[in-house]
Amino acid sequence: MEKENTITRKISIGLIIGLIILVTAVAFAVTSRNETIQPQRSPEEPAAALETNKDLSKAILNVRDMSCSGCIATIKGSLEGIPGIKDILVDLAGGKAEVYYDQALLPDPAPIASAITAAGYPAKILKTVSAEEIRKENNLAASKANVYIASVSGYDISRADFDVEMKAAKQRLQKSYGDELTNPNAAALNDRLKAQVASRLIDEGILLREIDRAGYKVDEKTMNTELEKYIRESGKTEKEFEKSVLDAGYKYDYFKKKFEAGLLINRYVDEKVLADTKDSNDRRRIFASWFNNSKGLTEVLYYDKDIEKAIKNQSASSSCCASK
């Protein structure tokens, strides 16, 4: 058990060290994560009903003044008396909530916003999604899941990239801890690793989407110059460097792609987000505010439901337990 707990703690460290994405600021910026609260269901309402109920609709709300899982519990309690509520998903960082409900039992979702507001969290319905639209979302997810794991407001996250990062992360951890991650009893550790890898790729997608919207670019010549500088500063020859990349579990072309993405993100952040401050504490605060705002404006659609579940379980287990 002690060895398993040690591996769990080391997963986070291994990912921070090993993932090639070069934006170190993301590690401290994302302090709030999506959380899931699932109301109790009767035996006649299994979890699968959320996907098959022909009357299942969804209300997306803006919710203010939330800070931790205690807020989630309060919001859940405020909705217990409303008929037809099936599931509640809350994004603390983005200040949003998604409430799934049976439209046959609750034709008008307005009471949802009223109940959350009355509980002390001012809420406003941004939009509703019909049962037909939800079915279309599920069909889209099923058809795209083989190629992508998720979409960040239209920016698709490649399954190939996810597989590469998972393989490399497992390789690093297995060098230190042997076959613990392949042990059937270590399923929870595999899910934690899966959630952290996917979350970091999604965070990268959020940043790249924001930069693309701004029309910011770095030319190829600059990219090549910076890569040559990076290799030179490593103290290795080009062949030695390429071998070290392969030893870490990555193909060199993949490393180069990630290096270019990291350089693009770092330059944009330095020039456009943090240009007016040099103080390290101010830079952390400004970046965190900018990134969390970008994240709040982003809609993440998961194509891989297993990854979505792993991320939500990870968020719930690592959230603060204090109440408002």
Characterise the protein shown here:
The chain is α+β, with helices and mostly antiparallel strands. It has 2 domains: 2-31 and 143-318, Triger factor/SurA peptide-binding fold (Orthogonal Bundle); 34-131, Alpha-Beta Plaits (2-Layer Sandwich), CATH 3.30.70.100. It is 56% helix and 14% strand. The protein has helices at residues 2-18, 25-29, 49-52, 69-78, 110-118, 131-144, 159-177, 187-214, 220-233, 238-247, 252-273, 280-296, 305-318; strands spanning 34-37, 56-63, 85-91, 96-102, 123-129, 148-152, 155-158, 300-302. The strands form 2 sheets. It has a 5-stranded antiparallel sheet with strand order 1-3-4-2-5. It is globular. Mean pLDDT is 78; it is low at 4-50 and 320-324.
